[in-house]
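Methods — Computational structure assignment.
A single polypeptide chain was analysed. Its primary sequence is given first, followed by the predicted tertiary structure written as structure tokens.
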Amino acid sequence: MGLPAHFESASGAVHRCRNGVVDALRPGCQGWVMSQDPAAVEGVGATALGAAMMRAQESSRSDRLFDDPYAASFVAAAPPPFEDVPDAGDGELAALEAAFRAAMVVRTCFFDEYLVSAVSSGCRQVVLLAAGLDTRAFRLAWPQGTRLFELDLPEVFTFKEAVLSRHGADPGCERTIVAVDLRHEWPSTLREAGFDPTVPTAWTAEGLLAYLTHEEAARLLTDVGELSAAGSQLAFEQSSFASDSVLDDARNLQAMEQVSSMWKGGLNADAAAWLEPRGWEVHALERSEVAAKLGRHMPGESAGGFLTATRDASSGRTAP
């Protein structure tokens, strides 16, 4: 899937302003006009807004573990996510909400630290798959020369860039947004946007794979592997619906059906066992272990965690 018309010039080329943001108006650096199309807001997706809401809640705490300065602005600019879900109250739904909020905070911190480590070790090219309302391009400290690509649906960026522009957000790296549907062909569009597959890249698939079928997740990770030079890194969550009591409770609670119905299972297998024969050296980390290091309690019995992988020299691309 290529870029829609409002992301292209008459020649069809992808344009970046001085700071690397794709210009949705015309070639050059004229900025962004706030969309007045309600469909643009509705198309952002409740999951992205729900994640932004939880990041905003954490950012407002005096003992916050991170500060996302734009999360609250995204939430304020859109309708309430999951508005059909009843108030949490004090029962099962409240317990699930607390568990998901805690997991989101731990997840955000994990991927923050992963990216800082990856770029420090030489990955000066970053790709955020299904970036949603992620603002790491603006809130993390990036080494000079870092190039960051955000991939998501065009309607997500229509909403996101309008909010960021209104608040004068300025990225700390060369940021490029690429409008694609990751369930279809996307690597060629990424390369056309300036991605170099011969240099080490840090990839994230944060909060993504569970919403894909096994075939879609396998195809996505195969594409990532084919685009990854030796030394590239990859990180994503891994959770088993069979062993994670929090996810199991959510699937069995009628009030959570709007959310849980979107879960497709992802690889639905041992991710390490899938990656290792395909040229990745894999390291797994339990979510509870990350939470303990952060000094946060994880409500419930969540058996999930995170997986990081490094592309080995025999499998990665090399410069011609």
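Note: The longest strand covers residues 280-286.
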